């Protein structure tokens, strides 16, 4: 098999539409290859020099600066990663492939280009949010004086992930100054820029200092998308740091047709998303971009003597310990690097499209069943639905009490999950209990969606019988 | 091979004194076993129920509550961990083996018993310090009022790891209120309780609020041990939370003869150490004990609706997301669990003793070479030494200038490391540049210590020739 090149994606005879990311026999073969490499390495370890013999920049010059369109054989990848000219895998966390991922997501047209800001792979959104909160906090305290921490106000919506509040609390922001601005069904539970302005103006009037906004692309409960453009305008006016949390949904932006969801990201100061959520990376992989790395580094840097060395003193390397909470760094980039090369961009795009198509199919069935209702507009591969209150009110005259309807839906979800056949989750959105199906498992196929629908129908049938 | 039992350690025919923790052929066999298990699991995944069918407490009842003295065969361990009655590995992070580790370290005689506080495995000391700083901060703010954050003072010594300052800064403690109390050679660079008292009293006099002390067992630079007993007395008097950072050295306390180093830990509010440093665990394994888990949980808890479920509502499970920074949890306990069972306590103890013995041997050679000097008393497996300034001053009359001596030692270290045969590090301790050798690599044997000594001698010879 010829090694595919990035330049000629059409040369690759990869079946993008039928790509199977986890074929057991092939997984076994690849895993055994890696194990055997490790064993050979340790058998010969005494023959290698104790310290790496390569200098800063060595790796960057060895690998392409964009991800391949098609998959590459594991042998090539291992050769580059492990068996190359030096036996020790280079332990950088800012793989150029992260940049390649940025490029394939269309970020290079924004200020989040490799030339502008900088990127680091952290463990979770909470790490990323806490890091940027601390950077924004210290940037603002520099202006208003170090004792002003109690004046700082951070903003999110009532749909923002709880990790935002947790991060702000850890950063020492006063609990009374962490705002969760209310959203509504009218705005599809996205944060309204006008509501943000009202909240910010009220705080400024009270002598407080707005300093941070967490906007979300794909909220946890319903995958709502906050309008980055208008929110960014308000934030800019008041000197507020904007972080965009795209934890789950931003993975879809590797497909051109979904890039519109992050329009306005060029106004943001930082942006994070988790390839471990919807892009097949293993857990503990949160990509964070910041517009001004110097601000992040100033907030998080430490320079004890025992961590200094020649290359760090010459500033020839980026010390990623100063870009995150912990000083210890796991070798997180390698899983993303191997993922991008072994899948290829085209397959990743096709997988994203396949999940969204399955979600659309499921949504269509919900829409065609009169007893059910899609709770909020579907943006990605998550469908939120419920047994329709209109139906219950209108036809069966059972109840128009929201608590009763919520309990009914909770019971349906419980019995669905007790079946052991599928697993769905729930959320409370605007006081309404909704059932959520999120499609993105690496083994999920159309047949599972069919099964899910059969199970849902069966348990809705039962519930309606009991409710009648 | 019979399965060894915990009750009869003398029955085990394990060669504790020659135990090899990384025999390549055996590693290969075990790794292939695990891979094959995973492959079989995914091949049959459709036959399993989607949700775990076991309830809270299931795991705790299945496994012994203390670590075995001798090693167990990997087949038994995998059977219990993975292939047992349920195909999904239980994802608890608070393995009873953590408790077992506590027991074998002698902690059960202190307030750090399983019955008292609680434990969690985090990623790094910075995570552990930040978590406890935030808990202590919020506990104190509850007393003095939520706006008092700028009054809070945190204490460490000039030998405390920089992660303490970093953690305190992240937690919003004012940079001017993070104290690094000076240590001296007279105290072997340990933090003096008297000096702490002086600093605390001065701060109280100024209207500030002392709230946190980071004491260290085995400092980074020289493995100094802060006197936990006397420090704890001072802290108690002023209501200061004491965290004990035993990152590297506390692993030695699994041997009874080294337990004295943590005498006084019963006065501490929290304690952490990293089995990934000196106890063969993979990176990202920091064990944290807290005396009052409720305080930690109050500072770090979040309860969004989408993370609630039946068992969490009934408080039948411990939600470890509230015991750490991130909500996401890696399955960190399994590596410790497999480690403890596959090595056994006796082998772990013997390995610790073997490293300390090697360090002693190396130290003895330094002592017998008149050109060299042991810089600080050796406590564990780290030896700090330098080319003796007395010698240079007294015999060669070259210089008594500290900068000159420091540069000479720096040059020796540089040439030692450039040899590619061994790797040593440095530290500045009380203005003196010292060379450090830390022994603890899983493949390190006596022959490597001999080699290290030969290399050091060779480069000292050269340096003395040049300096003469």
Structure summary:
Chain A is of the alpha/beta class. Chain A has helices at 24-43, 58-62, 74-83, 96-104, 125-144, 162-170, 193-205, 228-238, 275-278, 293-300, 310-313, 333-343, 345-368, 389-396, 402-418, 446-467; strands spanning 118-122, 152-157, 178-181, 209-216, 241-245, 270-273, 286-290, 372-374, 382-387, 425-429, 432-438. Chain A is 42% helix and 12% strand.
Give a description of the structure.
The structure is a homodimer of 468-residue chains. By secondary structure, chain A is an alpha/beta fold. Chain A folds into 2 domains: 96-343, Aspartate Aminotransferase, domain 2 (3-Layer(aba) Sandwich); 347-467, Aspartate Aminotransferase, domain 1. The first copy, chain A, contains 16 helices and 11 strands. Chain A has helices at 24-43, 58-62, 74-83, 96-104, 125-144, 162-170, 193-205, 228-238, 275-278, 293-300, 310-313, 333-343, 345-368, 389-396, 402-418, 446-467; strands at residues 118-122, 152-157, 178-181, 209-216, 241-245, 270-273, 286-290, 372-374, 382-387, 425-429, 432-438. In chain A, strands 1-7-6-5-4-2-3 form a 7-stranded mixed β-sheet, sandwiched between helices. Chain A has a 4-stranded antiparallel β-sheet with strand order 8-9-11-10. In chain A, strand 8 and strand 9 form a beta hairpin. The longest helix of chain A has 24 residues, at 345-368. Chain A is flat. The first copy, chain A, starts with 23 loop residues before the first helix and ends with a helix. Residues 1-14, 83-100 and 104-114 of chain A have low confidence and may be disordered. The interface between A and B is large, with 70 and 70 residues.
């Amino acid at each position: 098999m010829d090694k595919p090149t990035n330049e000629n994606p059409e040369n690759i005879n990869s079946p993008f539409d039928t790509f199977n990311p986890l074929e057991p026999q092939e997984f076994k073969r690849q895993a055994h290859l890696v194990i055997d490499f490790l064993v050979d390495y340790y058998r010969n370890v005494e023959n290698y020099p104790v310290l790496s013999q390569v200098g800063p920049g060595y790796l960057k010059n060895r690998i392409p600066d964009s991800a391949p369109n098609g998959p590459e054989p594991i042998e090539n990848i291992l050769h580059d990663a492990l068996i190359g000219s030096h036996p020790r895998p280079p332990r950088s966390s800012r793989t150029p492939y992260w940049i390649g991922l940025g490029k394939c997501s269309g970020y290079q047209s924004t200020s989040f280009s490799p030339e502008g800001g900088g990127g680091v792979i952290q463990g979770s959104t909470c790490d990323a949010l806490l890091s940027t909160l601390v950077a924004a906090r210290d940037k603002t305290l520099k202006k208003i004086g170090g004792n002003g921490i109690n004046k700082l106000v951070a903003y999110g919506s009532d749909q923002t992930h709880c990790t935002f509040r947790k991060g702000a609390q850890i950063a020492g922001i006063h609990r009374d100054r962490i705002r969760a601005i209310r959203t509504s069904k009218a705005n599809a539970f996205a944060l309204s820029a006008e509501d943000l302005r009202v909240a910010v103006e009220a705080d400024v009037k009270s002598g407080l200092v707005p300093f941070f906004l967490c906007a979300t692309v794909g909220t946890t409960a319903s995958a709502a998308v906050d309008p980055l453009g208008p929110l960014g305008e308000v934030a800019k006016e008041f000197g507020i740091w904007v972080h965009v949390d795209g934890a789950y949904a931003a993975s879809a932006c590797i497909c051109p047709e979904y890039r519109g969801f992050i329009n306005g990201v060029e106004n943001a100061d930082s942006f994070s998303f988790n390839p471990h959520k919807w892009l097949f990376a293993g857990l503990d992989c949160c990509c964070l971009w910041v517009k001004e790395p110097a601000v992040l580094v100033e907030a998080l840097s430490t320079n004890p003597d025992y961590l200094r060395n020649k290359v760090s003193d010459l500033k020839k390397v980026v010390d990623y310990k100063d870009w995150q909470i912990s000083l210890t760094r796991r070798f997180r980039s390698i899983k993303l690097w191997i993922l991008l090369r072994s899948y290829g961009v085209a397959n990743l795009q096709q997988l994203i499209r396949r999940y969204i198509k399955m979600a659309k199919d499921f949504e269509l069935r919900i829409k065609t069943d009169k007893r059910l209702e899609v709770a909020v507009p579907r943006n990605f591969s998550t469908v939120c639905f419920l047994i329709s209150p209109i139906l219950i009110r209108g036809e069966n005259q059972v109840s128009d009490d929201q608590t009763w309807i919520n309990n009914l839906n909770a019971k349906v979800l419980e019995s669905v999950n007790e079946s052991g056949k599928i697993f769905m989750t729930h959320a409370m959105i605007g006081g309404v209990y909704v059932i959520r199906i999120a499609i993105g498992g690496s083994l999920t196929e159309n047949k599972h969606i069919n099964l899910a629908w059969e199970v849902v129908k069966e348990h809705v049938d039962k519930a309606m019988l009991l409710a009648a």
